[in-house]
Amino acid sequence: MAENTYELLYWQIPGLADITRLILEAVGASYTNKFVTRETFKEIKEEQRFGHIPKLTVKAPDGSVVHIWESKAIHNYLADIFDLLPEGAHTSAVKRAECFSNVFSLYEYMDRLSMIRVMPTLELRKEVRELAMSDKLPKALQYHEKLVAQSGGPYYYGKKMTLPDLILYALNVRFNIYIGEAVLINEAVTPHLHKLVQTLDAGRAGEYVRDRRDWG
Question: In what residue span(s) does the GST C-terminal domain sit (predicted)?
Answer without folding.
Answer: 95-216
